[in-house]
Amino acid sequence: MASLPTTHRALVLTDKSLPLAVKTLPTPTAIHGSAVVEIFSAGVLSYHREVYNGAESHAHYSLPTPLVTGMSGIGRIAALGPDATALQPGQLVFVDCMIRARDDPETAFLLAIHDSGTPGSRKLARDVWRDGTFAEYARVPLENCVPLDEKRLCGELGYDVHDLMYMDYLIVPFGGLRDIGLEPGETVVVSPATGGYGGAAVMVAVAMGARVIAMGRNEAELARLKKHVLSGSPSASIETVKITGDETADAESLKAFGAIDAAIDFTPPKGASSSHVKSVVRAIRKGGRISLMGLNENPIVPWLVVSKNISLKGKLMYEREDLVSFAKMLKTGLFPRGKHLVDTKIFSLEDWKECLDVAAEHTGIGRRVVFSPKSSV
Ligand SMILES: NC(=O)c1ccc[n+]([C@@H]2O[C@H](COP(=O)([O-])OP(=O)(O)OC[C@H]3O[C@@H](n4cnc5c(N)ncnc54)[C@H](OP(=O)(O)O)[C@@H]3O)[C@@H](O)[C@H]2O)c1
């Protein structure tokens, strides 16, 4: 393995009251339990800008500062701690931002995004896993490196690493849909489907062999969603239903497509008063399962949940096994490729301001923004 350079470039948050800055820092070294990954692509969220600029709306995203910004990424193993047994130098890996305490399954946090606020997660975010992936090199836990079959994915299937980065969106609804045991052939409602994670949920449900009913307020975006899915998966079974705000009428619109087995919801806080989850509860069959992944505090017609034996499951992100399964699914070729999967906009670290601004706008199904800290793969 080539030796690491002594320094590298990283996008640093010194304090939420100050602008980000690209700085030259000492390159991290591999200690026990860690890998140093050379980062080729790092995913940018639609609200990354607000997490780092001190916006009131995202004040609850507590973080230790200073830190290297970032979240999940894709790169090549550049150095391994002495206790690595399976990972190999040079291997292409997905770097998962979900850091879990090794001695407490209940302690977890999002790398360089949110320290989760518990004493244990705060300690890990502050003292051990502080720095993220908006950098040429990142030190991450060994178990957060999920190998990607480069020969198959980038060779035979022709995926670009930046397009593969869309997997950090896709993996989230995969976690929720697996959690409620979605089966091929089942009908699943995705609501609202016009956002980043909702759109990803539609693509994942189609790849899992389900029939999808996508709900949303914006008819033009629903039409774009359907077109995007059918462009990459012409035989997909996909319907759309507009959220009108009329709970029973929207339930009837859903029922028009026959028995509904399952649903997944990504309603953000600002949509908490929307009636669409209640419509889903009205429309779903007896024994239906609903994965709740958004932050929706709306009561969900409790008497119908009881009388119809509906299972409601909250889900934060996904488990590590979900990631491993997802990587297998990807390499079987179940997802579309190229622009049929995702339109990715790529930025250098130096162009961070434009990158974060574009990320806030370039959202919805098949849209992704990434940093490319290292230009060559
Ligand atoms: N559980 C987890 O692990 C997990 C992981 C990631 C994200 N999330 C959560 O998922 C939610 C969505 O995230 P995102 O990044 O996909 O957001 P996003 O891209 O901003 O999408 C927001 C979606 O909500 C819809 N919406 C907004 N206000 C609405 C209203 N009043 N009534 C009905 N629909 C409304 C939008 O529809 P329009 O197109 O009509 O505006 C859009 O479809 C957030 O709460 C986020 O925290 C959870």
From TrEMBL:
Domain Alcohol dehydrogenase-like N-terminal: residue ranges: 34-149
Superkingdom of origin organism: Eukaryota
Stretches assigned to the Alcohol dehydrogenase-like C-terminal domain: 198-329
Coiled coil: none
A Pfam family the protein falls into: ADH_zinc_N
Classification via SUPFAM superfamilies: GroES-like (SSF50129), NAD(P)-binding Rossmann-fold domains (SSF51735)
Signal peptide location: none
Example of a GO cellular component annotation carried by this entry: mitochondrion
An example Gene Ontology molecular-function term: oxidoreductase activity
Designated name of the protein: GroES-like protein
Upper lineage: Eukaryota, Fungi, Dikarya, Ascomycota, Pezizomycotina
